[in-house]
Amino acid sequence: MFLDYFALGLLVFVALVIFYGIIVIHDIPFEIAKERDHPHQDAIHVAGWVSLFTLHAIWPFLWIWATLWRKERGWGFHKLEEEQHDLHHRLEKLVDQVSNMEQEIRYLKSKQVVQQAQAVEEEK
Predict the structure, then answer these.
(1) Is this entry keyworded Transmembrane helix (predicted)?
(2) What is the pLDDT of residue 120?
(3) Cα–Cα separations (whole angstroms), residue 3 to 6, 17, 30, 59, 60
(4) What is d(CA 12, CA 4) in angstroms, rounded to the nearest whole number?
(5) What is the DSSP code string of the chain?
(6) Alpha carbons 41 and 116: distance in angstroms, whole number
């Protein structure tokens, strides 16, 4: 008789631990987002609950979504923007250099044509 009640109590305890364990596990991405001051905390929290009904299919994506944001660097695209800005300025410098070289080439070609014309006149 005692073992029946003990088994029933153990069964209820295990069921409650599993139930609350699943809830805690599905709140991990939300806790990460809250710790990092993520701008989409509420969406991550709701999506965590939705993942319970989608058989946890979206839960790994929530984890990734929550860990991508950091308060000190945001999404991490600032470095990429700076690199693109630097490349743009370097490209502008190269375009200016090429146009200057084209002008010098035109000048040298015209000078060469004049010298050839003078050489032809001297031969006559």
Answers:
(1) yes
(2) 83
(3) 5, 20, 41, 39, 41
(4) 12
(5) -HHHHHHHHHHHHHHHHHHHHHHHHHTHHHHHHHHTT-TTHHHHHHHHHHHHHTTTSSHHHHHHHHHH-BTTTBTS-HHHHHHHHHHHHHHHHHHHHHHHHHHHHHHHHHHHHHHHHHHHHHH-
(6) 77
